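Per your request, structure below.
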């Protein structure tokens, strides 16, 4: 705490029950602009002495106190002189900010505010300042080649945020409140046409607003369809057919046996959804019963499993997976199951993006992991008033090196 400063005295304020440390900058730090920190001529004494909240000494609050003259800077005019222990216009020392930011990254903002004896809003402001200082010297959008784009819901009522991650570094590079073409255009505006032209692969789901924006702003990049979402489409189509089979059985149930069959179909959801390797004995028996009593629904199940097998095969034999995808499209086209006929049309619309997923092995797994961590941040904070507060914490923890405690070195793996 004493780096680049001179301690002039220490006293205890009985009224406020705190320790006051009188300090001044050392000779090399005197007379500098508070914004650019370049040497500047003294203008006046300013508003006299000022205090900054410092780290507590045990259970006692500590404040630094110093004169705050003003200087005349050639670039910024008359401004308050810089001090080496705090940011310009901040009421806390750098050490206080660093410890608060570290705690905000490791636990809830409520716990951080309680321990640091400050307000929730102050914690949010400190996090934003720390992130801004960390990213001032770096541009997260430089050197991007393979990125992932997705949206995440952060509040009920269709409240979304758009997230962009770098597949090479594994970091979040951009995040904004809202979703849709207008929000994604803001990302490409910040990226610029030259850097957008350097993008080679972009992973995303099948959202139309993402596809149309990428066609317009990054036509040279290969769009990669996320395999998880493609298999999820097949699962939705299977569930549509399961409900249709149940409704048919329910309408045709004329006796106790028919009603029992309808109930059995209703309870078959998880057996149909689960991967074949994860089935229990009871669920395996349920599928055997479906194969014997409802061949149409069993065919839908086999179509779902076959599409999942295509992406599993791509991990070791991409060329064979491409051939298997073409065979699957032909099978789905002839299956006479409306949900899967619609699905094969949808897959054909995204055919090139799905082929790219099979050949490159890319997915949105990284960005889904980021979304999971973002939800954990939201849950840990028991909700946030604004998306900006969430974005600040996500950027603090997932967009770069995490803050370290004052006086400690970063841990090495």
């Amino acid at each position: 705490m004493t780096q680049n400063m001179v301690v002039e005295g220490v006293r205890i304020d009985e009224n406020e029950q705190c320790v006051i440390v009188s300090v001044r900058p050392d000779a090399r730090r005197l007379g500098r602009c508070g914004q650019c920190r370049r040497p500047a001529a003294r203008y006046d004494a300013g508003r006299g002495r000022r205090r900054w909240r410092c780290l507590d000494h045990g259970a006692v609050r500590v404040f630094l106190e110093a004169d705050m003259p003003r200087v005349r800077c050639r670039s910024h005019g008359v401004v308050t002189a810089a001090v080496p222990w705090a940011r310009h216009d901040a009421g806390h020392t750098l050490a206080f900010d660093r410890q608060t930011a570290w705690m905000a990254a490791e636990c809830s903002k409520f716990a951080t505010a309680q321990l640091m004896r400050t307000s929730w809003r102050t914690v949010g402001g400190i996090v934003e300042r720390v992130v801004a200082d960390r990213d001032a010297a770096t541009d997260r959008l430089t050197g991007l080649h393979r990125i992932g784009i997705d949206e995440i819901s952060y509040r009920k009522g269709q409240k979304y945020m758009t997230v962009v991650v770098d597949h090479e570094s594994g970091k979040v590079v951009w995040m904004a409140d809202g979703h849709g073409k207008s929000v994604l255009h803001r990302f490409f505006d910040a990226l610029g046409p030259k850097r957008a032209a350097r993008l080679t692969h972009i992973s995303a789901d099948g959202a139309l607003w993402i596809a149309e924006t990428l066609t317009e702003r990054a036509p040279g990049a290969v769009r990669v369809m996320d395999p998880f979402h493609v298999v999820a489409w097949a699962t939705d189509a299977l569930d549509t057919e399961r409900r249709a089979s149940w409704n048919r059985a329910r309408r045709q149930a004329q006796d106790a046996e028919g009603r029992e069959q309808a109930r059995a179909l209703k309870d078959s959801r998880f057996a149909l959804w689960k991967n074949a390797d994860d089935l229990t004995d009871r669920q395996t028996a349920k599928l055997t019963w479906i194969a014997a009593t409802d061949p149409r629904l069993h065919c839908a199940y086999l179509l779902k499993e076959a599409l999942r097998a295509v992406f599993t095969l791509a991990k070791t034999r991409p060329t064979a997976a491409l051939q298997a995808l073409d065979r699957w499209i032909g099978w789905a086209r002839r299956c006479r199951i409306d949900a899967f006929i619609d699905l094969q049309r949808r897959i054909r619309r995204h055919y090139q993006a799905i082929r790219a997923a099979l050949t490159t092995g890319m997915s949105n797994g990284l960005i889904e992991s980021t979304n999971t961590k973002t939800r954990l941040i939201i849950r840990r904070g028991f909700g946030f008033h604004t998306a900006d507060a969430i974005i600040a914490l996500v950027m603090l923890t997932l967009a770069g090196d995490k803050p370290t405690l004052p006086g400690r070195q970063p841990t090495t793996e």
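The chain has a mean pLDDT of 87.

Regards,
D.
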